[in-house]
Amino acid sequence: MARRIAAKISGVAGYVPPRVLTNADLEKMVDTSDEWIVTRTGIHERHIVDSGVAASHMGAEAARRLLAQKGVAPEEIDLIVVATVTPDMLFPATACLIQNELGAKRAWGFDLSAACSGFLYALTVGSQFVGAGTHRKALVIGSDVMTSIIDFSDRATCVLFGDGAGAVLIEPAESEAEGILDFHHDIDGSGGCNLFMPGGGSLHPPTHETVDKKMHYVHQDGPQVFKYAVRRMCEVSSMLLERNGLTGEDLALVVPHQANLRIIRAMQERLGIPDSKLMINIDRYGNTTAGTIPLGLRDAIQQGRLHRGDLVLLMAVGAGFTTGSILVRWA
Ligand code: ACO
Q1: Which of 156, 172, 188 is the last residue of a domain?
Q2: What is the pLDDT of residue 175?
Q3: How far is the CA of 111 from the centre of ligand 1 (A)?
Q4: Does residue 67 carry a pLDDT above 70?
Q5: How confident is the model at residue 138 (pLDDT cuts 50, 70, 90)?
Q6: Out of 81, 111, 141, 265, which could bridge 93 as a Cys pair, Cβ 3.0 to 4.6 Å?
Q7: Does 36 share its domain with 183?
Q8: 30 C-alpha to center of ligand 1: Å?
Q9: Are residues 77 and 216 located together in one domain of the fold?
Q10: Which residues are designated catalytic?
Q11: Does residue 88 share a domain with residue 167?
Q12: In this predicted structure, what is the pLDDT of residue 116?
């Protein structure tokens, strides 16, 4: 049964830091090659922050660009939901830091942790408040400084990620036929051991030992994550289309989470999506975790690939495992 929310994405903006880390740069840091990285992941380069730049800074910059583009004053924002697994600090929430940085004095907000599905979870949550009629302008932000939790001596993870942020504005839709049409999210906690950062939380508070054991870095079983991501992205997307009486033919654009080009291609093949309907930008940014989907939407708009009335499918799988898919009639 489809869950209708009369809320729409009324604007999109993004930010990636100016510094670029190429595969050639990584060749000098670990035992890898441009050829391996490109053929196994599709990534050519990624953007990384300079020291001192945190998730709140990138998120606030994406939000500032969005507000300027829309001509919306910070004081008009009612709610700020931030998806991140790399908050500036465990507390206060990154949403509070961004609210302060923007001067969004009337807004309340909070952070949400769902790793690579984080932006989609935040989009659904933010849309609920607008759809319910209690809020008129919600900022949904995905921002991750993945380089702050990556071991740059581990070639299996350091080549995959980049830093980046995206922000969308959620406003009431004219009707239930446009904006966020439907969503599906689920989690499978049994997959938590496949992708995680063991140190720094209440289970293993930071000590010299946790640092020596590199527990504050991303640990993953890449092939397990790969298989789960392909299977669940396909299952969830098919189910969402089916229950809305739609097929892949009806879609104008698919914006998948950008974790690995081979994951995207496997999903594309199984769902039968032509290249013309598929958003890919992993080659330039790598996996920016909560940033990938809003950056994908931003790039699609800049490339003239997204128009009013288009049916768009967003999909992601991330650590947890978390899964998300959202169907949008672009308004
Ligand atoms: N350069 C050169 N060789 C490498 C590198 C590298 N950067 N990394 C790993 N290898 C080697 C391995 O050591 C291994 O060598 P061996 O056969 O001698 O042992 C070989 O390449 C194959 O390793 P696999 O792990 O089997 O390689 P695979 O083809 O599975 O690719 C990868 C690894 C890229 C990590 C892939 O499994 C993947 O992308 N998984 C998804 C992980 C992911 O995206 N996580 C992030 C967040 S979750 C999400 O967003 C869905």
Answers
A1: 172
A2: 87
A3: 30
A4: yes
A5: very high
A6: 111
A7: no
A8: 14
A9: no
A10: 116, 257, 287
A11: yes
A12: 98
Pocket of ligand 1 from Cβ distances under 6 Å: 32, 36-37, 40-41, 116, 155-156, 159-160, 195, 220, 222-223, 225-226, 229, 257, 259-260, 287, 317-319
Residue 2 lies in a domain: no
Identify the sign of the CA torsion 23, 29, 32, 33.
positive
**Looking at the structure, do residues 227 and 135 belong to the same domain, yes or no?**
no
pLDDT at 3: 53
Overall average pLDDT of the 269-274 stretch: 92
The parent domain of residue 215 ranges over: 179-329
Q: Ligand 1 test: best mutation among 26, 32, 40, 43, most atoms within 8 Å of CB?
A: 40
Separation of CA 230 and ligand 1 centre (Å):
15
Q: Does the residue 138 lie in any domain?
A: yes
Residues 163, 14: one domain? yes
- Whether 159 and 12 share a structural domain: yes
Q: What's the CATH code of the domain at 199?
A: 3.40.47.10
One domain, residues 97 and 206: no
Residues 71 and 210 in one domain: no
Find the 129 Cα to ligand 1 centroid distance in Å: 40
